[in-house]
Design goal:
Elements lengths: L1 H30 L1 E6 L1 H10 L1 H6 L3 E6 L5 H7 L5 E6 H11 L3 E9 L3 E4 L13 E5 L2 H13 L4 E2 L12 E3 L5 E5 L4 H4 L5 E4 L1 H6 L9 E2 L5 H5 L1 E7 L6 H10 L2 H10 L5 E2 L2
Length: 272
Amino acid sequence: MKKKLTVLLVLTLVLTSVLALTGCGSKDTDDKVIKVGATPAPHAEILEVVKDNLEEQGYTLEIVEYNDYILPNKGVTEGELDANYFQHISYLNNYNEENGTDLVSAGVIHYEPFALYAGKTTSVDALKSGAQIAVPNDGTNEGRALKLLEAQGLIKLNPEAGFLATKIDITENPLNLEIVEMEAAQLPRVLADVDMAVINGNYAIDGGLKLADALAIEAGDSEAAQTYANVIAVAKGNENSDKIKALVAALQSDEVKEFIDKTYGGAVVALF
């Protein structure tokens, strides 16, 4: 009986040691994998540029693509992603406020000018009474789109609404324009069915639209350029982890700046 108990005790200790070592190995492996959620263009494309850089530092970059603005934040909050790269800081702050989350910016990477694109009507001067203009329907992005329309003299907004304006904050609308609110990802797809649309930079790129063809573009020195910097978002407390620091440093490199300048024709502007 004593021999059996001794053997059992030894086996238990060995098994415990193996599990402990396996657990440590898994943690070490996890620390070398950087899993980032991103929208396809330009974010996932920019992330692809830094894969080799990170690999040289011992990190494996895994890019998970999304076509909406909710799941990438859920993924970070729930620990399925180490970070995400798809949103500007104003959207991130608004998301935290609405969802009770605590996501933070680990670093600023770029800015995407909003632009007004022609659909059935080819110029701002040709717009007729009752024309339809589509805008994104999410939080800060709708206000940003409406401010671009205001800059073109098409509408006037309640100044107190700021970048959180919606169509109910329109105080003057001489052409009685119909503002069509819809999910940002759908805007390039419906462009041919409306007179015009104000489209987020990433979805415009993904939809094959060129900034050079836009009817109006946010000014590079506008308040929007400072307010809508795209960031690497992480759960609070993770912004100082070694792998997130490595990710941000790789994205804020000369290599990435050169790629952005050559690839996007002004539709993406590096902010580092």
